[in-house]
Known about the structure:
The protein is mostly helical. It has a single domain, classed as Glycosyltransferase, CATH 1.50.10. Helices cover 50% and strands 5% of the residues. It contains eleven helices and six strands. The chain has helices at 2-10, 38-41, 71-88, 91-106, 136-153, 156-164, 201-217, 224-248, 272-289, 292-302, 307-323, and strands spanning 45-48, 54-56, 109-111, 115-117, 179-180, 188-189. The strands form three sheets. A two-stranded antiparallel ribbon has the order 1-2. A hairpin with a 7-residue loop joins strand 5 and strand 6 (188-189). The longest helix has 25 residues, at 224-248. The relative contact order is 0.11.
Amino acid sequence: MLNKLRTDLQTRGNFVPLSEEVHAAKLGYYYLLFGTDISKLNKLIREYDEQGIPLNAAYIDVEAGKSHYYPISIGQVGLSIFHQYLNTGSRENRAHFLRIADWFMQNRTENSKLGTFWLTEIPKPEYKVTKPWKSAFTQSRALSILLRAWQETGDDRYLQTATSALMVFTLDISEGGVAIRRPHAEIFYEEYVAEYPTRVLDGHFFSLFGLYDYMRAVPSELSPESHALASALFNDGVQGLIEALPKYDLGYWVLFNRCEVPGYPEFDPCTINYLQLVIQQLQVLSKITNESIFDVYKEKFNNYLSWSNILRMYQSKFKALKNLNRI
Length: 327
């Protein structure tokens, strides 16, 4: 825990660069400009297979864990490689990116009710998830990768799969979907689909970015129904986020999630790096939507990054992690 605190303090103020273009129909750089340093990209990535697909190490609380394919990480690496391709024009980078797009094609699951989705194999003990699980964040990564592959190659299989991947956003987690859609609750897209809502904040943001990629890349003139669906899903999620943000605001810091899984700590604040990510996600969403509320929360959350607030947060974070057996 002390090492985590030290690392967080050292990286305080280190924000990821953001893309300047967020509206063009041609999908270029992703909204956050992921670099090539794997230690910064994702600390759990340990190796690559023979096709250049990254594998993650297991979480600290997973017994007998081994390296595994983690779709969210695979998508993040794919976007990083796509950035390298845009920067250099390298055919090697292009081929590597398309191998990652093909990994999503080859590892998809299809269902007449749920459409296309991807499963993550590693358990999530803190959410009592022991079977392969869906994720709105994974769907978003797949959308961002597949749509860029479609635009790059003209291969309609990528577009068809991306379109089918929208369906699972329309259903509540109790129906096999990746959303919280129920009376008296804001609509929320789940990074970790469990029996109960988990509501991890950054995962909802990233889910919106993938849906917006679809709106940009697939205009209504090309596909009226799918563009309308992606737009409705995006707008639902934006409204849900506006309703949810006050519930994450602690007045001095921000919650990591609002988890209803029995036994999960009621109070689990985010880390410094996580708060910095959320601040940048707010900045991106403000630019996309022109909703001033996101600027208000961006400034408010940025002002929380003081030494006194950080130390106050870590006292509570230590208790939450200890309760979850993660330290």
